[in-house]
Design goal:
Two copies of one chain form a homodimer. Chain A has 426 residues and is an alpha/beta fold. Chain A contains ten helices and 25 strands.
Chain lengths: 426, 426
């Protein structure tokens, strides 16, 4: 196992070795925040790129190219000498031996930051997991894009009207931001772009359905923004939104609902739940029901002050005792806090509890339409949409990706186009 | 089988039905040239996009994103009412029944244009086909990109120096334009970009080898341009070019050469041959040893005046009796000719023989370096390189793709970067 150490991190006796697991929003920020600090940092990820997840649905709906929301992690090494990158999938973490085990090697650490993120939560519904589409990584997104476009290609020559309608029925489950953005974007893809691509198809056969088990959309936002979203989706985007509707099962052809109803659909996108990655189960510490590690207010693992957990992998509460949501701003603020805490530990200073400052949240519904909740402000419509665009361009990493996304957005907006309508390599 | 006809092409008694197989350079141009002509056109391809093959090697070497050289075929339908598109893989062609058989349907035709292109020719070397990489479609290109980048990730932690060198040895076979451009681009990727990504690797271990079985490079160009290319590759791009060297076998680890030598290499890219697609064998007509259909001077299939074959699928000779090369300009000129011939047949006018006007050829070696042979002009260096850039940008289809490619080229050129250094979804 020692073979794996070659050239990756310093020999004993040098600076403390900080291992950061995951190059998502949290992990990447921890690594970067430790630049020019007296530590050696090894960042571990199973991908060689950082993925900008908030725009993943736009890859799934043919607006953006996968590479535009992916940023090569090794770019960050060019200007940070104390940073190393190790490609590898974490198999387990041995807290007592202070060692991370990947498929290829064992990586010892002095400090560990677990920022492994989340994965789709199917709540044990194996048939939905098998036949439905999750939306958590680039493979998911391109699978959805290929599948949706293929349904239209098939429908063109399908003589059976019932089969054709099933091919052209797209069910999205989950009324949170991902579900809403996916539903709005698929609906626009179909009505504004594919209508021109398939002049012989009857678009009355097309149906986009959004299912939400609760009584309203966007539960994390004020009620009036959920209501505004509902109206916009129904009116402008012709999305059939069904509230109080739970999914019981899906066999790839028929969605069975909790109320006994059913929908014939060849496509089901599951945006109804996220849980922490399952490798956290190897830690042997307390987890919440989403698999998140229950951490101290300092984000340390109880009994292991040298181990921090952040982002979707961590369960921690705000000052009013509410669990923090699984969202990028939480991960990024925690990352900055933890980078500081590691330096404090090295310097022998006491740690402070993490306090989350809610920067607000937003969701886009479609062209010229979004909702945003920032502090006491509740915005909707065009202003919220422009804010959404600006915030997302700003948060993207890398000038080339920002420029490329801007061009593709302008393209879609001006020409009612989607440039990446490719049924890609299998 | 008749089910497949719904909405795709006209009922009997209407305009003649022209079926075009393949949406490459030839097929797409035939289809477009028949706009506003008294025919209904069905374009059939197994992909839903037109691929700009001359830049495929830049996808393989992380400069361009796959979507930048792919253009959705259905875009061409927006402005051409007599054009229909059918996604499907041609299984066979029944010349007597005047029917094309795809996996899903039978498509009858009045006129047929076969523009199915070529595929990698391994000359029966099954081990090379299994363990080496071809470079004919987007899947090939992304496989090469993922593989090359993965070799560097593996080499970082490989303690055995001999294994590490094999991981970092990249063999390209074939001294034609594709082989030269791939070798030059991989070499630049490594020396200019990956060197920054892998600060702990010893780049003396890296080796790019170009093998050519003939005595010189770029056989289709004048000797002095081949010689200039050889010198540029050896001197500026540190490519180990070996002439008069044939490959005997490759097991994924060791390349055995015709002269008894061998090279340990985990990567072999096969750019040494193209043959016509094998579905042409179902025609039951005369083919050359590359599988190309031997056509009349009018590009018609002997005995079947309603069937034309063009591009890499056709074997035809120039005025001096030399076979035309398997290159895009040939396919495109033949396409224009055939579109005219179909109208002539409909109008009862006699056909003319196809005459190829050689627009010249060019190949890029790397930054600021290319060779070009245009008429009596033999160009090299910076001027040829600028011409190469201009010609390729001009030939790309779609403004968005042109802009995106320009940006990525500028990015690479100015910052010594490759934006798409992603080990993509498996």
């Amino acid at each position: 196992m020692q073979e794996g150490r070659i050239g990756v991190y310093p020999e004993k006796g040098q600076s403390p070795h900080v291992v950061v697991l995951g190059a998502g929003f949290g992990g990447l920020r921890v690594a970067r925040s430790l630049a020019r600090r007296p530590v050696e940092v090894t960042l571990v990820d199973r991908k060689n790129y950082h993925l900008f997840q908030p725009l993943l649905y736009q890859v799934a709906t043919a607006t953006l190219s996968p590479d535009e929301i992916a940023y090569p992690v090794r770019n960050t090494l060019h200007n940070q000498q104390n940073l190393h990158f190790q490609l590898g999938e974490v198999q387990s973490i041995d807290l007592n031996a202070r060692t991370v085990i990947t498929r290829e090697m064992a990586i010892p650490y002095d400090f560990l930051v677990v920022a492994l993120g989340g994965q789709t939560n199917y709540f044990g519904m194996e048939d939905v997991e098998r036949h439905g589409f999750g939306l958590k990584d680039l493979a998911d997104a391109t699978r959805i894009r290929n599948h949706v476009l293929s349904q239209f290609e098939k429908a063109v020559t399908e003589p059976d009207p019932e089969k054709r309608r099933a091919m052209l029925t797209f069910v999205i489950v989950g009324g949170g931001p991902t579900g809403i953005e996916s539903a709005g974007s698929i609906s626009e893809l179909i009505r504004l772009v594919l209508r021109k691509d398939y002049p012989t198809l009857d678009f009355d056969d097309v149906c986009v359905i959004l299912l939400e088990r609760d009584h309203r959309l966007l539960l994390a936002m004020p009620e009036e923004l959920g209501q505004a979203t509902l109206e916009a989706l129904r009116r402008k985007h012709v999305v059939d939104v069904r509230l109080n509707t739970a999914v019981e099962s899906y066999d790839g052809h028929v969605v069975r609902l909790g109320d006994g109803g059913q929908i014939r659909a060849e496509t089901l996108i599951w945006a109804a739940g996220v849980r922490a990655v399952s490798v956290l189960d190897t830690l042997g510490v307390e987890q919440d029901r989403s698999g998140r590690v229950v951490v101290e207010p300092t984000l340390q693992v109880p009994g292991h002050p040298e181990v921090f957990v952040i982002g979707d992998a961590a369960f921690c509460k705000d000052e009013e005792g509410r669990p923090l949501p699984m969202m990028a701003p939480v991960a990024m603020q925690q990352a900055s806090h933890v980078a500081g805490s590691i330096i404090r530990l090295i310097e022998g200073r006491p740690l402070e509890a993490f306090r989350y400052k809610d920067p607000g949240s937003m969701a886009t519904i479609g062209r010229n339409q979004a909702v945003a909740h920032i502090g006491r402000w509740k915005l909707r419509g065009f202003i919220a949409w422009v804010m959404w665009l600006a915030v997302h361009i700003y948060q993207l990493i890398g000038f080339r990706n920002r420029l490329a996304v801007l061009i593709d957005w302008a393209w879609s907006y001006i020409f009612y186009e989607r440039a990446v309508r490719l049924i890609g390599p299998p």
